[in-house]
Amino acid sequence: MNFHPYPAYLCKNKDPMTRFWQPLIFLLACTIPAIAQNTLYDETRVPSIYISIDEDSLAYIYANVLSDHYFSARFIFDDTERRDTLESAGFRLRGNTSRYAKKKSFKISFNEYVSGRKYQGVKKLNLLGEHNDPTMIREKLYYHLWKKSGMPERRANFVKVFINDVYYGLYTNAEEMDKEWLGRVYPDKTGNLYKCTYPADLVYLGLNQQVYKDLQNSTATGGRVYELETNKEEDDYARLVDLIATLYHEPDSVFAAQIAAILDVNSFLKSLALDVATGNWDDYGYNRNNFYLYDRPDNSLFEFITYDPDNTFGVDWSGIDWTTRNCLQWLNPELNLPLAEKILAVPQFFEKYKEYLDTLARHIIEPDSVFPYIDSLKTLITPAAIADTFRSLDYGYTVASFENGFIQKVDSHTPYGIKPFLSKRKEYLLKQLHPSGTADPDPASPISVSPNPVNDFFVLTTGISPAKPFQVEIYDLTGRLNKTVRVEPSGSSAIQIDASGLSSGLHLIRISHESGTIIGRFIKN
Questions:
Q1: Which pLDDT value is given to residue 520?
Q2: Who has greater pLDDT, 96 or 505?
Q3: Which one of 64, 130, 278, 522 has the minimum C-beta count within 10 Å?
Q4: Predicted structure pTM score
């Protein structure tokens, strides 16, 4: 591995004193990758990834698109401030139908030929071609909104990919959802992670684990419908079968308690609500596809995680207008989807689902909140996108297609620009949630937050002036109390709050005083 994170002059200087100190300098320098800022997923720039691979190996990869064989390649990462080289990295195609696209997607494995090796803390990279998205930002945008909704972050950014010195285009660099990822976003990474692909309906087929293991998916490369991604040697499906067996019961009060004892119901409802709000139909709720179930050892609950959200923000392949589709009747009526059907049949869960949708409409997909972010992505990637000639190979996308994809229809499968989709989707969500016409005023309270989204500080205006001290409590969307501020009476209804220690995403404010309780919401950048 050719890896030089320390200055080049340290390697070249032949002074005797330098040679004396070089072993110590080398030891110190070797620690830099572990403590330096991680730039692999830097969202403020578009790094370059260079792959050097034998031409015969590359020809084999393109001639055998269903092969998952890794070929040895040199990997170079260059973010203009650091340039790292790793020899003998594994390189292959990835994806399902995208394997047949002319603009391919790729997977890189740093530990395929060097056991245990990581680069900037990860073992694998996913380079997504986004060949059917004229803007190439939909997947990245979804993961941004996912994080803002308080869900476990999947890091993603944009990179330029070069293979044997040829520019193969702009790619989304999406974090591998594996044990390293689990260890970063959860307290305990030792649980079973199941990757669920079409047709993963979670329908009960008895208590025999082998029946579920034998189910084969319909992806191009095949494999289990419920694929165990961790702890593969144990190959234990007992808890997954328990979850599916729980869904076999009728959705009554007993079921509500039983499902809440094995599944983080809120994580499922939030994930479903975000899919519905963003028009992500290639999910569990409409297409029984593209989700993970993580059996968390720290709380003994399964957590539901959406992935592969490229068919979002108006993308359609079946003649359905996902912009206006009723959020309260989203599920595919032709499929048996017990996880969604039975949970939404429980009144308290259905009300929570509607609450999440309302919050998403008002604060997450709200144009004033998300449009500046979309504009920043467009500005960031425009030079690399225009230079990407591979993006035109599948659907003939031009520079005009890239520009128009943000604001208007491009073709039959992208009938909406991203911005019009979000504006119209918010409008229809609120109409469907509040058919009586009470959708316009935010029902939260007289609380206002400025600025919103929030950076390190914000001013909270409450509209109240209590005579006695009161508390301001700030919660994240999981219901965890993150901050408490005691406020003394001052005659002013404006309060400055330090938000520097809060995580990114949506937060709830709760104020209790002698006259009652009021609730507000804000987004932390």
A1: 79
A2: 96
A3: 64
A4: 0.82
Q: Is 165 exposed, middle or buried (CB count within 10 Å of its CB: 0-12, 13-18, 19+)?
A: exposed
Q: How confident is the model at residue 3 (pLDDT cuts 50, 70, 90)?
A: very low
Number of Cβ atoms within 10 Å of the Cβ of 240? 21
Cis peptide, bond prior to residue 367, ω within 30 of zero: no
The bridge status of strand 291-296 relative to strand 301-306 is: antiparallel
Radius of gyration over alpha carbons of the chain, in Å? 25
Question: What is each CA distance from 387 to 376, 381, 392, in whole angstroms?
Answer: 18, 10, 11
Q: Are 38 and 122 in contact (CB under 8 A)?
A: no
Q: For residue 231, what are its two tokens?
A: 């702890």
Q: Give the confidence band of 31 by pLDDT, cuts at 50, 70, 90.
A: very low
Closest CA to 6 of 18, 459, 328: 18
pLDDT of residue 457: 75
**Cα dihedral value 117, 118, 124, 130, nearest 10:** -140
Residue 470 has pLDDT above 60, yes or no: yes
User: CA triplet 401, 406, 411: central angle to 5 degrees?
Assistant: 45
DSSP label of 112: S
List of residues 6+ apart from 269 with CB closer than 8 A: 343, 349, 352, 353, 356
Question: Span 403-431, mean pLDDT?
Answer: 97
Q: How far is CA 35 from CA 32, 38, 57, 176, 431, in A?
A: 5, 8, 35, 21, 50
| Encoded tokens for 473 | 């409590």
- Percent of the chain scoring above 70 in pLDDT: 88
Spatial separation of the C-alpha atoms in residues 122 and 116, rounded to whole Å: 10
DSSP 177-245: -SHHHHHHHSS---S-EEEE-SS-------S-HHHHHH-B--STT--BSEEE-SSTTT---HHHHHHHH
